[in-house]
Predict the 3D structure of the following.
Amino acid sequence: MTNGRPASLPHIVVIGAGFGGLTFCQKFPVGRARITLIDRQNHHLFQPLLYQVATAGLSAVDIAQPIRAIFGNRPDFEVVMAEVTGLDLVARRVVHARGELTYDYLVVAAGGMTSYFGHPEWEQFAPGLKTLDDALAIRRRVLLSFERAETEPDPAKRDAAMTIVVIGGGPTGVELAGTFAELTRTVLNRDFDHIDPSKARVILLEGSPRVLAAYPPELSASAQRQLEHLGVEVRTATRVEAISAGQVVAGGQTLRSDNIVWSAGVAAVPLARQLGMESDRAGRVKVRPDLSVPGHPEVFAIGDLISLVDAHGVTVPGIAPGAIQAGAFVAKLIDRELGGARPAGGEREPFVYLDKGNMATIGRSAAVAEIGRFKFSGFPAWIAWLGVHLLFLIGFRNKLSVLLQWTYSYFTYRRGARVISGTAGPPAHSS
Amino acid sequence: MTNGRPASLPHIVVIGAGFGGLTFCQKFPVGRARITLIDRQNHHLFQPLLYQVATAGLSAVDIAQPIRAIFGNRPDFEVVMAEVTGLDLVARRVVHARGELTYDYLVVAAGGMTSYFGHPEWEQFAPGLKTLDDALAIRRRVLLSFERAETEPDPAKRDAAMTIVVIGGGPTGVELAGTFAELTRTVLNRDFDHIDPSKARVILLEGSPRVLAAYPPELSASAQRQLEHLGVEVRTATRVEAISAGQVVAGGQTLRSDNIVWSAGVAAVPLARQLGMESDRAGRVKVRPDLSVPGHPEVFAIGDLISLVDAHGVTVPGIAPGAIQAGAFVAKLIDRELGGARPAGGEREPFVYLDKGNMATIGRSAAVAEIGRFKFSGFPAWIAWLGVHLLFLIGFRNKLSVLLQWTYSYFTYRRGARVISGTAGPPAHSS
């Protein structure tokens, strides 16, 4: 299957069309090799804004691009939509649901998945937020619970329907909690007659002493203040002890809620195990300093899948810039090797992560940001967040039009984003 | 549950937030009565464009509006999202999944559903197109089948994956077939390397001698020509004999296709039976000339639910204008009665349907249209179609912005509308 071209072009297989895989493909020079990009979904997802879909602020189409639309016309480039089921590093083969691919180089960028710290049974009661399906399910659940509350005579059930619990105070949890609070107080409050959505409870649970624990303490404090200003109940140093249908036990208290969202842990996808490497407790594989797999210099792993302390002692974080920089690094490395370049001393250069800062939004017009030595918050941080995320957009060819679209959606499509398909389900804990 | 208002305002319950129910609510003067609008979905759907969502041309949010966003702030107006499970016309009670409503007037506008002419077992193999879920499922199925075809070595399976069969040559079937043909020939053709989507087969089956059988013969002929120009195989006078997984037997031939769509029949929803009235074979209730239910002058039925030959001998068609005009008529009638007006002779005025014409699009820039005595086709008809449908938009407050949005979506969001959530499923006949 070489499209009639000479088989002399090397073949690179890239698993995963997230930030890592896509950046690799975009940075790798056209025509230098044949590339096959394989993903089990048909689209690239702009994950930093996934929480917006979950909170009915944006629609799925605002943050996703079909992979074929990004690369459709590129020569020597194929897209396969299938789940990778096996890797044979000796035979240099990738096995997927509908066939096999042999490679000269392999880039594994399959990403992460929600992790429940050894309690997989919690997943059915507290879904995570990693895919469009996750976001749409959360949105649907929350909107339906308010519909139920509107006609619910029992006050305890009504309160449970109007309570949202977000577990995990990292950036995703902070963003979810702040935006749910805004949703109830500024959007839904106008829609109902028998309930007052502005009285809905939004509770954020975080096990460590502060939210945004990976950020500087001042920003954690600022984020908590801004969240509380929006009406979120922030409970730090509060570990979850048990989760069951409609109920969370945390910090010795029982919280009843029909809307429990888990954003407390990410682990590597199971495919990582097929690399046969040492990995951490979250299944993230410990790659070599050049991001390759020990014993297989033609195989690379990048993004949320890996665990690495770089050459300067910096732990590469499991966020978009980590994947993006790694994808660019591997593209350059393979390009140079194919060009015949041999690095001095025979050793490849190690990967170095450039920490460009951290940001998290809290609601519609506030955020915290740390760029280099500058830490700031509030509206200027939010503007910076917006600017940086626009820069990082991949595949959205016309960034100006996307900005306009987000603006339009943000302020007017609120309505559209509240459309849920399907009919009203049975009362209470329907999934 | 009267919101603290005096119980003296009459209570009107409206079942269904489609064109009929919504027009009733919009035309009925604010404050004249308390209105409860109940629907099992949370949104109003602009059904004429549902086929666009099914063919990945528009997104769900382009054609749906949350009901609460349309009426949220209207005084004496409640929205209930629940399925109506029973009607007690004697006690004047509507029973729904989470409670009951008593009414002084009842307007049943619950609409239609896909009908399989006594073959309900065909539904699992040939889904219909009535709801957003239907449209999204069709879209997903078609896009996934092309993904499968891309890596399918067996030519017979590949052909089946690249064949789309539309059953039913009415306006919906014509619009679906024409747009699927365009989708494959002008959008998908650029996305794949191993298959040529422009060679996909789109087959339209119609049991009567011509497509658009309810339209003038010249327009039927024009529609067929335009469809064939787009590459659709039109088979009239071809009845479906059997449907099974991936296969349709029609006109003595067996067609293999992974994408079979049914748009050949609409019947009244089961709720219609609870009105206890005479109905036709499709379950449509035979209302009195004033659209009321025999023996219950305070109960009205409108829209796809009813079967009526009006006072001028015109059969009220099951299309949007039929529901819209009926909704407006009933609103005026109830308003006058509440105002104390008694019609001369004690008999209410009969409903008269004003046939403003018929239209159907064929692809992106062609259509057929009949308005009064004028029949025209091609691009001018398409422009007229666009203008009329914009006029009929309900609840989309800013029609100019919707026009811009449709234009934007139509030409650029093609990409966005091709995003499907979920992962690649197992090969072949997955549902």
Q: What stands out?
A: Residues 6 and 34 of chain B are 11 Å apart (CA to CA).
